[in-house]
Amino acid sequence: MAGRLEGKVAVITGGASGIGRATTMLFLSEGARVVVADYNAASGEETISRAGQQGHVDRVVFRRMDVADEQQVEATFQTALHRWGRLDCVFNNAGVGGAFGPITEIAVEDWDYTFAVLVRGVFLGIKHGARIMKAQGQGGTIINTASIAGLSGGDGPQAYSAAKAAVVNLTKSTAIELAPSRIRVNAICPGGILTPLLHRGNPEAVRNFLEKFQPWPEAGQPEHIATVALFLASDESRFITGATIVVDGGATACGAFAAGRLHSVSPLPMQGLAGVDRGTTGELAVVRSGASSG
Q1: Cα separation of 140 and 32, whole Å?
Q2: 155: CATH
Q3: Which one of 115, 160, 209, 213 is the catalytic residue?
Q4: Which regions of 49-203 does DSSP assign to beta strands (E)?
Q5: Can you tell me the distance from the alpha carbon of 122 to that of 9, in angstroms, rounded to the nearest whole number?
Q6: Is 160 annotated in the active site?
């Protein structure tokens, strides 16, 4: 039986860990060929090794890429064309925690770094993915990872939340623009998902936090997002574009109570601290306190 993505070619940014890795493995199992793009080369090679162990060695390739660097993004997309002759799906998934701390203490360079990865990276993925898809004339699908933090205030640091709100809006506006070319653009808004980006080596504490934060009594897993990405990448969702799909265990259903619950049960207190979280890129976070910055 053919997989739901049989014959399709996808580029997945942030594809070497967490949600990206889970989606890579699922897409491969459904017949896709995948370019895994990630800043962390060690995680990238580990992902390729895992794919090879599952028999997918000829249908996956890793490219180290900074999503905020246009030349690197364009070169990565060209890899898909050179290797497999087409591009059908782009999953703009790369992310970092980004700048955090009181608004009066956030450094301008940390704010700009956050937007470079979370917004500019999505813009470049849409830009270069859409160029190829329009030239092919056969449509395609673009999926962006947003967040419930982009849907309201209080569910994430200011820079992260603002950046994810921009991703939601960019998804809608480009969906309108690209619809005549049969290129669908949708966003997934995860809640708390048990990935290295979130748990930072302390999965049990974060698991307990998530099970208290949200109504659904099970911590979100990368596979929960990957299955939604599979649906959006497949022909099963061919009439869906400009949508924002929330996958959060009911967290946003709590409305105004969600932010209060987040701060009351969070295992990662940041009060009095400021800095920038560079996620799973392999680069160290910067944490400071006290002096004003930026």
Answers
A1: 14
A2: 3.40.50.720
A3: 160
A4: 60-64, 89-92, 98-100, 140-145, 183-190
A5: 18
A6: yes
Residue 294 belongs to some domain of the structure: no
pLDDT (tens digit per residue) in 204-229: 777 777 777 788 888 889 999 999 99
pTM for this entry: 0.89
- Domain of residue 272: give its range: 9-288
Q: Are 188 and 225 in contact (CB under 8 A)?
A: yes
Length of the chain: 294
Dmax over CA atoms of the chain, in Å, equals 61
Runs of H (alpha helix) within 9-157: 18-29, 41-53, 70-84, 108-115, 121-136
Q: What does each C-alpha distance from 152 to 143, 157, 183 come to in angstroms?
A: 21, 11, 28
User: How many alpha carbons lie under 13 Å from residue 40 in its C-beta half-sphere?
Assistant: 25
Is position 84 within any domain? yes
